[in-house]
Amino acid sequence: MGDYLTAGLQKLQKNFPFMKEIRGLGLLIGVECADAVGPVQQKCLQRGLMIGAAGPKVLRLMPPLTINKDYADRALSILEAALYDVQKEVKE
Description:
The protein is of the alpha+beta class.
């Protein structure tokens, strides 16, 4: 599942240059970003997804070990919407 989530994040990275680097091992995944991740965390939380941070510019994903593809896809979809909203706000 870690590889599945990482692959999904890499697809998102192509559309959001805000995401600089994806790294991790297994289900502990970090996404280094160009700017502070607080706004992304807030947008995710508003949609029901809790994402942590490992410093001001790194999103930390730590899903439960029992996660399945349906929940992973849902999380990636919520993250994508949050990134889109933040990117839109920055451009305005």
